[in-house]
Fold this protein.
Amino acid sequence: MSKPPFSITAALARISQPDGPLDADANAGGDGNAVVDQSQTALTTRQPRNPKATRRLILDAAFYEIRMAGFAGASINQILERTGTTKGALYHHFPGKAKLVHAVIEECLPQYINDVWLGPLDGVDDVLPVLMGQVDCLSGANAPELLDGGCPLARLASGAAELDESLRKRIDGVYRYWRRGLASHLGRGQFNKTIRTDIESSSVAEFIIATLHGFLTRPPSMRNSETHEAFAREYARYLNGLRP
């Protein structure tokens, strides 16, 4: 069963504008041959621009900055320092901080959901052990790097009161995407008879996401090995209750 498309990003065209034309080489004087020689030298030494790579670099740095500092605390200067790009390059791709924030929500957050939570379930007949393994790896060296500061989606959603209605709807759209995807995997488990058929897959998906959200929004000091073991134990008990 294929996952449904993410409604927000499907509705928005992902258009990367090309960088502006290269500046013409200045020449202070000399004969025509000198001009040709200098131009050829400049063309052979100048590094080609890659607008898509620059845009991706800025977007990844912004995602890191926002999930560490929140929307309000995110610093454009920190993003520039992390990427080594200029303000001109940033505003060429994202004309304003609001546009950059929108891109993070619409592109980075769904990708995070795919990479960490939904992707490992693809093509798996029995998803319950995989779901348990995802929680097991939250503590220790195998924890996804994206979760260093907690769940990015949970962290950003926790500050939703500071956001305008447009941003809140976008974040809610990412949750709906996660919920639909997880419910689809649970439904496949029901079809394969590895999960009870008397449960409502969308309700179970909602509960699992809320449970993970609650654990991952706790301060790091409250997510030590003892609290993780207690959480993992009760999470496993719940998952085992989904068996036929």
About this structure: The longest helix spans residues 165-191. Residues 1-48 have pLDDT under 50 and may be disordered. The domain at 102-241 is CATH 1.10.357 (Tetracycline Repressor; domain 2).
